[in-house]
Design goal:
Length: about 290
């Protein structure tokens, strides 16, 4: 073997060793990546469990990112808390990103055949989180609720969800009542929060051709109320015993509004008119 051939073999051997070493380095790097991904997965699982239990991002030390601004951290914290909260909220809730410094929270309350969609667009500012856009009803003071969002996200989301769910339920019950009893309702009105309702119903007595009337006026104490706090009954050309009157009022105060009105309409139609027409206003009944 001459010197040239020996040198070539040495070079080939060296290159082979370098190649094997490079392969070993690649394998080590891949193993390190696998270990890192496993740690990240474990951290994410721990993070999800912790967020679901109500802790804040500041209480977790597995996701520090010094490059993020304080406002972005707040929004990231909010987004993740909402993602965990939407599993248990009183109405449908979704979160979407618009850009790094803002996000949109969408609520979908439903009752009977009524479903509505409301949203809040939140933007990070130097002085905290602010509402940049919303289609929430004006009688929900959203801005004041959002002021507390940094410290108690779950409570704020619950408050908004409960208000919206109650509002849609009252609205759906009132709409169903108007649709079901369109033939006997002569007048109806309600305010925008659907916390003050007025129904006037009438039915013609076939034997006397006297028009019987019952008016129901109910009020709810807050926008979160599902049942009325007060009910007032007025009647014309019809007699109602104290026992029946109390039963009807109790039904209005404790049952779904459409169900309670069914009982009132049934009584109105089935009861004979007074021979001598008269009208009277029943006293107010308050739910204690």
């Amino acid at each position: 073997m001459n010197a040239y051939t020996a040198l070539q073999e040495l070079r080939q051997t060296r290159n082979t060793r370098f190649h094997h070493a490079a392969l070993c380095d690649t394998v080590r790097e891949q193993l390190d990546e696998i270990v890192a991904l496993q740690k990240q997965k474990a951290g994410l699982e721990q993070r999800l469990g912790t967020l679901t239990s109500g802790q804040t991002v500041d209480e977790l030390n597995c996701w520090d990112d010094p490059d993020l601004s304080e406002q972005s951290k707040i929004l990231r914290d909010l987004r993740e808390k909402l993602a965990a909260y939407r599993l248990i909220g009183p109405c449908g809730l979704t979160v979407s990103n618009v850009e790094s410094s803002s996000l949109v929270v969408t609520f979908t309350p439903m009752w009977l055949s009524l479903s509505e969609v409301f949203y809040i667009s939140l933007k990070a500012k130097d002085d905290g989180i602010q509402v940049s856009a919303t289609n929430m009803p004006y009688f929900f003071n959203v801005s004041s609720l959002v002021d507390d969002m940094k410290t108690d996200v779950a409570s704020v989301m619950d408050s908004i969800s409960v208000k919206l769910a109650a509002y849609v339920q009252r609205k759906a019950e009132f709409q169903l009542t108007l649709k079901t009893h369109a033939d006997v309702i002569s007048f109806s009105s309600c305010n925008e929060p659907v916390t003050s309702l007025d129904l006037e119903m009438q039915s013609l007595d076939a034997s006397t051709e006297i028009m019987k009337r019952i008016d129901i006026y109910v009020t709810y104490s807050t926008v979160e109320s599902l049942q009325p706090a007060r009910v007032q009954l007025s009647k014309e050309n019809i007699s109602i015993s104290e026992e029946i009157e109390e039963e009807l009022r109790h039904s209005i105060l404790t049952s779904p509004f459409s169900t309670a009105v069914n009982k009132v309409v049934e009584f109105l139609i089935s009861t004979e008119a007074l021979v001598e027409p008269q009208s009277s206003e029943a006293g107010e009944f308050v739910d204690n």
